[in-house]
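sorry for the late reply, my laptop died twice this morning and i had to redo everyting from scratch. anyway the thing you sent over, i finally got around to it. pasting the sequence first so we're on the same page, its 420 residues, then the predicted structure underneath. double check i copied it right bc i was rushing
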Amino acid sequence: MNTVLILLPLVLTILFSLATVPILVWMERRIAALIQDRLGPNRCHINGIRLGGIIQSVADMMKLVFKEEFLPSHIKNKFYYLVAPSLAFMSAFLTFMVIPYADNITINEKTYYMQALPTDLGVLWFLAFAGLGVYGIILGGWASHNKYAMLGSMRATAQVIGYEVAMGLSLVSMLITYGTISLNEMVTYQSQSFFIIPAWGIVIQPIATIIFIITAFAETNRAPFDAAEGESEIVAGYHTEYGAMKFGLYFVAEYIAMAASGALIVTIFLGGYQLPYLNTNDLINNFELVLWLIIAFAAVTSIIFFKWMKKHNIFEMPGLDEKKVYATLIIGFTAFAIVVMSYYALGFSEGSSVGVMILQFAIFTVKLFFLHFVFIWVRWTLPRFRYDQTQKLGWNILLPLSLVNIFITAIVVVGVNYGS
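ok and here's the structure:
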């Protein structure tokens, strides 16, 4: 048990970063298809099982893994050319290490931290490695000896410089508000109430929230801030000369950076792993009631999903009957989950810290995937900003706004402390 609880945060970090990339690619394609009023990936299958199109993402991943590694002959600095994608990938992955997935749990007087790297550096760790990631882009563009790659890397550099300042200043407002740089303590702060509404960061610091979300899009080179790639202007930007798994590392790094930014937004601005009005002690004390609510929710959502699948999953494929396979899996999983939760809810076992920890994992996951949806939704809704528009937004609007927000926050915090 001890070993499991120690390794659990590391396993979750790998799941939320590396293992979710095929799912994020699938979400990107399905949501893009929904917005553009088309079907999206729905043909690739294994013996009739398509998993809603996710088999296509797995096939693409396998293609990148087994593709021939080709080194262009004009590349002079081979070491820097090869190490650049790894630098971008590792920086994105390491930003995830400080995200808390649940509250600290104490068993037999020993406390276990639900962070892969339980450090008090918190936000500083994220900023350090998020800023380091751009070196992979700069290095790749320079080492490619290609004018389009160089232009892309220069755009990325200018964009990161312009937006990282505003991002850091928006976080300064949150540090003043929370009075700590520990991400876990920030989540604990948000379990309180602000008058009658939850004291989430998005409620008490709406300007900082908007600035941080906009700068997070720019830091991850997601549309509408993807001028560094700009395929209609500079081919593919900094990764023009990359292929196979070298390109795959850049590709995966972008999605991991998006996931890490989403996880930080959830942690700092959306209450982290907490439910509104319910902190960890409230969940433990009302564990049975919470479980009954979850059981009712699981039963209702299963019925709704069955009806949705019966209406929309009408395209027949050779092989297994896909609808029967899904129905069997969903019924089996839902029944198993309801039996396990009923065991606790009927009082056969006392509500435990482990049960609340699992519930907080689920809460964090739901919030994180909602942020993934927002990232994808924005990409397929807004057009790419011109390079000069991107710079004006960063330097002329976001930077002054973040400075004003710090000034107002400091006055309010000092006034409140003086009054109390």
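The chain has 16 helices and four strands.
thats about all i looked at so far, will dig more tmrw
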